[in-house]
Amino acid sequence: MKLTKWNPDKRVVIKKVQGVNKTTFEVYTRLPNGKVIRQRFNNETDAIPYAEDLKIEGLNLQNAKTRNVRPTSLGATQEGDYITAMEILNKKFGDGAWNLTKAATWVAANYQEQDWTDIHVVDAIVEFLDWKKKEGTKKHYLVKVRSFLGLKLDKDGNRQIKDGSLASMDKLLNDVTQAELDHLIWDESWEVSNSSRLRAWKILHNFYVWASSKKPKKCEYNPIVDIPKPPKNELDPQAFTVEQATKIMEAAASVYNGETVPYFALALFAGLRPQEITGNESIEPLRWDKHFVWDKDDKGNDKVSVRLKGKMAWRRTVLLPDNCLAWIKPYAKKRGEVCPRGFKHKSYAIRCAAGFRVNPARMRGLKKLKIDGLENPDDKNKAEWIQDGCRHSALSYRLAIVEDVQAVCSWAGNSPSVFKSNYEALVTKEQAKKYWAIFPPDPIGQ
Which terminus of the chain, N or C, has less C-beta within 10 A? Predict the structure, then answer.
């Protein structure tokens, strides 16, 4: 079939249209593809350029039709975008697997507008704590949450960021990855029980529930739901053996001039919690001049109690057993804190010297000390340190002697249910007698 030649000068015309009150200029054409265009202008000056453009478009269409070339209305930028888009789709799904129509359909079905407001991690933590405070959350819980999330406050109320915590992540909250959150809960170098990991999971879960639901939202969703929830401790409570407890006390007395002896004696024989001795953001450290009450019994023997303050269950007075008093008496001071400086680092040396396995990373700088037993700290033949083992031991051995759960709970600051699930270990009365007979050698601390 012979193609009819399209003459631009004849096909594109400008017609003057005389109206009642106004004269306009109409540009009219039928392009080679059959498309009819009719456009009016208020003056001929605007109509002429438009008509010239139509002539060029018509010629292009005519030439494309003659050479059997399919015309396109895409510009150079659009063509480049198309090529780039197809390269991305082919690389991701394979050549020809996806086309632009399929990709556009998927995007239209799954696209959502950002419905959260970006906020820095630290600022989100501050808002969360403020919200919990206004909600009436107890101070002790707020301190615990603030401590874990890594936002400390100094005496003047200034922020201090804890290394390795959520607060130390210098980024937007929504940019925190699931892997980073997983590390906060399941980091293997964090030597804690499943109960501690579960508590960490719950704190992060509560934080992200707030951040992803309270308006305005601070992040897209709660990523903690995709991180395995640590199980509750299902193993029977454990306690140190009489031999292990003896070695711990002997190791403490043999190094650092015995300055760690009061801590281990109070933990092993008086059942004090670690934070009741060392202190934390909500509990002041145990002090000789503030918490100890020295008295005499009818026979003139020393009778010493420790008065503890804190949350309701912790607020109690603990009468020190005879062997506990015997251990701490040589190191008692008129004033000052019971726990020595650098105790955490020193405690690992005591553990290792007492025959317990210790992560070598915890022993940096300690091997230079002339302390027996610091060789091969991670020897697999060594016993594992029992998490909360000192308190477990004190309560378990006391129950074996007293045989009264309520009395021991009152002494320890626990409810019977918590005591049963966390502290009651299987020890015999004979073992308990030997445990409470662990006294220091004479002379002590030499």
Answer: N
In this predicted structure, what is the pLDDT of residue 445?
A: 45
Q: Are 277 and 288 in contact (CB under 8 A)?
A: no
Q: Where in the chain is the domain with CATH 1.10.443?
A: 242-435
- Give tens-digit pLDDT for 134-193: 998 887 788 889 889 998 877 677 788 988 999 999 999 999 999 999 999 998 877 777
What value does the mean pLDDT take over residues 350-354? 91
Q: Which residues contact 163 (CB under 8 A, 6 or more apart)?
A: 150
Mean pLDDT (the chain) is 86
Tallying the residues shown for the chain, one arrives at 446
Say how far apart CA 118 and CA 258 lie, in whole Å: 53
Q: What CATH code is assigned to 242-435?
A: 1.10.443
What SS3 string covers the chain?
A: CCCCCCCHHHHCEEEEEECCCCEEEEEEEECCCCCEEEEEECCHHHHHHHHHHHHHHHHHHHHHHHCCCCCCCCCHHHHHHHHHHHHHHHHHHCCCCCCHHHHHHHHHHHCCCCCECCCEHHHHHHHHHHHHHHCCCCHHHHHHHHHHHCEEECCCCCEEECCCCHHHCCCEHHHCCHHHHHHHHHCCCCCCCHHHHHHHHHHHHHHHHHHHHCCCECCCCCHHHHCCCCCCCCCCCCCCCHHHHHHHHHHHHHCHHHCCHHHHHHHHHCCCCHHHHHCCCCCCCCEHHHHEEEEECCCCCEEEEEEECCCHHHCEEEECCHHHHHHHHHHCCCCCECCCCCHHHHHHHHHHHCCEECCHHHHCCCCCCCCCCCCCCCCCCCEECCCCHHHHHHHHHHHHHHCCHHHHHHHHCCCHHHHHHHCCCCCCHHHHHHHCCCCCCCCCCC
Question: For residues 375 and 381, what is the distance between their CA atoms, to the nearest angstrom?
Answer: 13
Query: 99's torsion region: left (phi>0), alpha (psi -120 to 50) or beta?
Result: beta
CB-based contacts of 266, cutoff 8 Å, min separation 6 = 272, 277, 286, 306, 320, 324, 328, 338
The residue among 283, 316, 305 whose CA lies nearest residue 415 is: 316
Angle between helices 389-402 and 405-412 (to 10 degrees): 140
